From TrEMBL:
This is DNA-directed RNA polymerases I, II, and III subunit RPABC3. DNA-dependent RNA polymerase catalyzes the transcription of DNA into RNA using the four ribonucleoside triphosphates as substrates. Common component of RNA polymerases I, II and III which synthesize ribosomal RNA precursors, mRNA precursors and many functional non-coding RNAs, and small RNAs, such as 5S rRNA and tRNAs, respectively. It is found in: Nucleus. One of its GO terms (molecular function) is DNA-directed RNA polymerase activity. Keywords: Nucleus. PANTHER family: DNA-DIRECTED RNA POLYMERASES I, II, AND III SUBUNIT RPABC3 (PTHR10917). It comes from the Eukaryota. Its main location: nucleus. It comes from Amorphochlora amoebiformis. One of its GO terms (biological process) is DNA-templated transcription. SMART domains: RPOL8c (SM00658). Belongs to the eukaryotic RPB8 RNA polymerase subunit family. One of its GO terms (cellular component) is RNA polymerase I complex. SUPFAM superfamilies: Nucleic acid-binding proteins.
Length: 154
């Protein structure tokens, strides 16, 4: 990706489990996904009333440093002007912070942990796929369901 791109990481994932350890909160589900291009594992807590997922569904998932399509950094306040943003291309968006990065000494894998107002994310895979992420970095997690071929035909 070009350095001016706001996307830090982007891939298509298949949902392989929903609430694998049982439902912990009424409106929150934990989805476990497997990445298609980079063979990554994504575990993501989502507000199930806003972003319902079923096993077998596919989602596009991205981590970005900004919602500005040009990649311009934002200050620490949300600009409420009506404008085009990267959020326009996604169904579900959260803003949060990377709080930990663990590296596996035996492989080239890393696990990125982020919190989005208490909703957690972990992303595990080859560390070369997310070299721009750093602890305490603010990020946007963006997800969009991918239409199945049957839905596209209707």
């Amino acid at each position: 990706m070009a350095s001016s791109s706001p996307h830090i990481f982007e891939d298509k994932f298949e949902v392989i489990q929903v609430d694998p350890d049982g439902k912990k909160f009424e409106k929150v589900s934990r989805i476990v996904c497997h990445g298609e291009s980079y063979e990554m594992e994504l575990v993501l807590d989502v507000h199930f009333g806003l972003f319902k997922c079923k096993v077998g569904e596919k989602i596009n998932f991205a981590l970005t440093s900004t919602i500005d399509p040009s990649g311009q950094k934002e200050d620490n306040t949300y600009d409420q002007r009506e404008r085009k943003t990267l959020m326009d291309g996604y169904d579900y968006v959260m803003h949060g912070r990377v709080f930990q990065i663990d590296e596996d000494k035996k492989t080239t894998d890393s696990i990125i942990y982020a919190s989005f107002g208490g909703l957690m994310m972990s992303l595990k895979g080859n560390s070369r796929n997310f070299t721009q992420l750093e602890p305490d970095m603010r990020v946007y997690a963006m997800a969009k369901k991918v239409a199945s071929s049957m839905e596209e035909e209707e």
